Structure formats: structure tokens, C-alpha cells
Amino acid sequence: MSLNKKESSTNNGPSAGNTPQELPSIAAPLNDQQLGSLQQTVSGLSSQQLAWVSGYFWGLSQAQPQTTGAAAPINQAAAAVAAKPAGKLTIIFASQTGNAKGVAEQLEQEAKALGVEAALFDASDYKGKNLAKETHVIIVASTNGEGEAPDNAIELHEFLQSKKAPKLPNLKYGVIGLGDSSYEFFCQTGKDFDAYLAKQGATAFIERIDCDVDYEADASVWRAKALDKVKEDLASGQEAEVVQLPVGQAAAGHSQYTKQNPYTATLLTSQKITGRDSGKDVRHVEIDLEESGLTYQPGDALGVWFENSSELANTILAKVGLSGVESVEVDGESLSIHSALVSKYEITAANPQLVTKFAELSGSKKLQKLVEDKDKLREYASNTQVVDVLAEKKTKLTADELVGLLRRLTPRLYSIASSQSEVDEEVHLTVGLVEYDKGEEKRFGGASSFLAQRLDEGDEVKVFVENNNNFKLPQDDNTPVIMVGPGTGIAPFRSFIQERDNRGAEGKNWLFFGDRTFTQDFLYQVEWQKYLKSGLLNRLDVAFSRDQAEKVYVQHRILENAEQVWQWVEDGAYIYVCGDATRMAKDVHEALVIVAEQQGKMSRDDAEEFINDLRKAKRYQRDVY
Ligand code: NAP
């Protein structure tokens, strides 16, 4: 459609007297009245807006039968793209805690801003056989601790290894793997998807990237490169004019506050909820989201950006012979190395790369030997803080050398311990302070010590909500739920119960909780007792591991109640597990397999398959790390 002044001299002139002169009339299949009201409607628009509107209507015309004058409902999809390019980009995320989902969403927005048609899918909503119909696919995949696919991608991951996987000669793909190089199976799920797609005949249009925990910068560079290639490919496939989305539209539907743009909230409460004689300091934290508009669902996590302790920064600086005033450049900004350590770099948790680089810089024989054995290196890195790695050999470093060793600071995610139906604009967390002795000195966790020690009530804390669709209450309020949450793993179940209470959900609720001692470590005891009394909580089984000579854990309680647990499962119960991934979650899984084996009279293999099927059906969900 061209808006040409010359054509305005035809007899289709504007009929409304106050129609602006600049608006031309068109030799168009509209009657005077239609044209007049159209001109009135668009009279206030700028030339840029008019250009967009022209593309918008062209898109509409392509999306409906070619009749004249018929009013049609507005089609949003047609608004995005004026003429379809030859193919489109499909983005699939395999995400456990939400990082991969976040990267995929950014990719979608950037694609759309570039005018590339893109569709975003949760891996659990994507049918693997549709890959055969795609031209361009990007998979963003995180990996679970033992190299397993995230829960939302288990099915797709299995499907692509199976005989049912389609041949994919026409597919071009890219993979972003997200992981943590402290783990043996670093980015394994990304590597798997890469290998499976290649095996089916698909071609990687860009080399896979394996990103570490500080993935933002690397992922962003990769995305830009990948989108350039996709755009080039799609444009050469067919002459197609693609209309860009108006500014702001791409982000519609997303909260204004994100990991990159967190909300500055206020700490309302940080209250110790373990007893005076407890070996642990666990805090109940309340944060005010005020007018932020941030919303969350039970099962979601809160991302917390934290600052490191100034004393720890000083200790590190002293170890490498720096005073703290030396300046470094971070993101184009010049600041003192002390400030950089406090607010820009991870100075608590070490990682294998840091150990490897420092082994080289320091010449430490002990570290150099460790570097040769990958397993030992990983174990050392995950059990040693940065300051203790640097203490292995006294070494003078420049400020640039020091920051060259460190990863950028990343926020910590905490399972949310409240439901908005109960606490409105607040969000509650259950935070275990990480602390231990190292010789004469104390060591603390970076984020937990920030929340529990360095932040006072009324202070500001930067937060964002990380949705977790892999840990959600059943849609049907009549469904029974079994919750297993020892230690701070109890957090999301406080949220679940508050939600079910407020929704008046009729489904039965069974909680398994465990911790060290009944008197000191029974987190939220009064609340659970209240829910038991009201009948909302049908069963509460506790395992206090250090109240007797023999250790008693939640999985023992599950096995003692195997018959009832099985009955609940037969009645359709959903099972949720939250807390420690390395030991507890595995032992609880094993207990569930045993329950199925014994009570369901199954072989070991069938029992394992049964529990796996529960997982696939989202009736067995875990939030563990
Ligand atoms: P914890 O260390 O898990 O201890 C809680 C209870 O579990 C204690 O009684 C402990 O007994 C017992 N326990 C030890 N080994 C066990 C096993 N193999 N199976 C079952 N129970 C076992 O509690 P916490 O200090 O509160 O730490 C909670 C853990 O969960 C942390 O690793 C935390 O990072 C994680 N967490 C994860 C999430 C999440 O993924 N969203 C949320 C919250 C917490 P003993 O100590 O007496 O042996």
C-alpha cells in the first residue's frame, strides 16, 4: 500500500471537514465514510507510527480471506510480521531453575526486535516430531547436577535418543548449554541435544556454546551472532519485507523487573528461627515488594543480588599484596579494586578455573598437582573458598590479575516460602546461614551472610522472581499432595500450604520434615501444628536425625509408612521433594522406588519405570540442588 499525495486528487477525497490536510486520500476500495473514519483515527500518529500501522494492516490482510470490506477480528500474530519469511526461528528451553528460560526469552525478544519471526517453547510443551517441520531451532539447555536433563526436558531428551526421532536433513540448529564447571557433567544436556540433532542429520549453523555460571556476557555475544546468521538465512530464503515490532511490544507480558533489572526492595524481617542451642542459624526473611507489581506462584524462587563483605574483600586484597585503592575497569566503568570485589565479583565460592589459573600464577606445587586430576580439582574447588585458594601460596598479584581470576557475581536463588494469597505484596524466604570454621577463622556463605548479617531491617535488597514451572501445585485442588522437605527444603511447602489454605483446596496434604533436633531445629513448628489442628495438614511425619543414637531421616519415615504412601499415590497424589540434591534427594527417590516395588508388587525395573513415569506426568516434582 502506498500513500501517495498525487493520488489524493482523485474523487475519493476526505469527507470529514476537520481531517488534517497532510493526510492523503487513496485510490482505495473504501467508501468515503470508511476512509473518513480511518483518517480521523490515525490523525494523531507520527510518520513512524503511520509506517507501522501500514504494515499492521497489510499483516491483517494476509491473515484473513481476501474479501473486501468485511470486518475481521484483529490478529495479534499478523501484527508482528507483515510478510512471512521463508522459515522461522523456534526457540526451545530446557530449564530447571529458570536461567535457561531467561536466556531463551531474551533470545525471543531480540529476534523479534530484529524482525525475525520467533516462537518460544517450554521443552515440555514441544512435540519432538515437529522438529522435522522446522527450518531453524535454537535449544537453550541447562543441566542437572548428575548430567541429567532438566525435568521439563526429560521427555524431549529421551525422544531424540529413541527410534522414533525423525530424520532432520532440513534443520539448522544452535545450542546454548548452561551449567556449572564445578560439576563433572558440565553442560551435558546441551552437549546431548547437539549430538542427537546432528545424528538425525541436522546442521549446526553456529557452534554450540557451553556457558558457566556467569553466563550473561557469553550468552549475549552468542545470541547476537546466532541471530545474525538466522536473519541472513531467512532473508535469503525469500524476498520478504519484515515489519519490526513497535518499541516495547516485544517485552509485553514480562515483568518490568528481571535478573538484569532487579527491583530494589526493602528487608522487613530477618528472624532466626532455630533455637539458641542449635548448630545452625536459619532465618525467616520477609521482603517487601510494595508497588513493584512483581508476582509469584508457589514453587517459584526469588533471585537475590547481594554484596560481599567488605572485610572479606580486605582479607583477599591483603593476601595478594594490594591496598584496595588500585583501580580496575568493569563494564567500561573505572572503580577501586575494593569496590569491584564487594559488588562485582564472586569472592566466596571458588571454581576449577580459578584454581587452575592461580596454580599457574602462583606456581603452587600442591595446586598444580590438583589441576592434573579433574575429579580432585572439582572436589577441592567446591569445598574451598576463594580466600583459602589464594592462601595456598603467598603471591603478589596486580589488580587486573586478581579480577582475571574471578567470576562475575551472580545472584542466588531462594525457594519462596510464602504465597501471595496469604502475604500480598511480601515475599518470604527460609535462609540457612552457611558458616564454618577454617582454622582460627570463620567462613561464611556470600548471599546467606548478606541476608542474615550485613542487611538490617529497612535496608534495600535487589530482587527478581524466577518462575519455576517444574515445581507447581496440581491444577486440581482435590488432588492429594505429599511434600518431602528436610531442613530449609521446607520453604516451598510453607508456600504450598498457605496457597491451599487460601484457595480452600480440598485435596489432602502430607508433609515429611526432617532436621537435626526437635527442640532446636523444628522450622515453623507452630505453623504446622496450627495447620494440623485445622485439618488442612492431614499428616505430618518428622525425622529428627540427632535426637537418638541412630540417624533417622525423612526417607525412613516414608518407608515406615509405605502402605499409606502407596495408597495416596494410588489415589492420584502428587509428590514433591525439596532440599539437598546430593544425598537426600537420591535417598528419597530410592525410598519411593522401594515403596512401588513392595506395595505395588513390581519388579525393581518396573518400580523404577513407574516412578519415572510419575515424574514425566509431573506427579513427582523436585526442587533440589
Ligand atoms: P540439611 O543439611 O539437608 O539437613 C536437614 C536434615 O537432613 C538433617 O536432619 C540431616 O541430618 C538430614 N540429612 C542428612 N543426610 C540426609 C540424607 N541422605 N537423606 C535425608 N536426610 C538427610 O538441611 P539444611 O542445612 O537446611 O540444608 C538444606 C539443603 O537443601 C542445602 O543443601 C540447601 O542448599 C538445599 N536447599 C535446596 C533448595 C532448592 O533446591 N530449592 C531449597 C532449600 C534448601 P544430619 O545432618 O544429622 O545427618
Automatic annotation (TrEMBL):
Domain FAD-binding FR-type: from-to ranges: 260-474
Catalytic activity field: hydrogen sulfide + 3 NADP(+) + 3 H2O = sulfite + 3 NADPH + 4 H(+)
Cofactor: binding comment: Binds 1 FAD per subunit. Binds 1 FMN per subunit.
Binding sites annotated in the UniProt record for NADP(+): S545, R546, K551, V552, Y553, V554, Q555, D587
Subunit structure: Alpha(8)-beta(8). The alpha component is a flavoprotein, the beta component is a hemoprotein.
Functional summary from the UniProt entry: Component of the sulfite reductase complex that catalyzes the 6-electron reduction of sulfite to sulfide. This is one of several activities required for the biosynthesis of L-cysteine from sulfate. The flavoprotein component catalyzes the electron flow from NADPH -> FAD -> FMN to the hemoprotein component.
Designated name of the protein: Sulfite reductase [NADPH] flavoprotein alpha-component
Originating organism: Vibrio sinaloensis DSM 21326
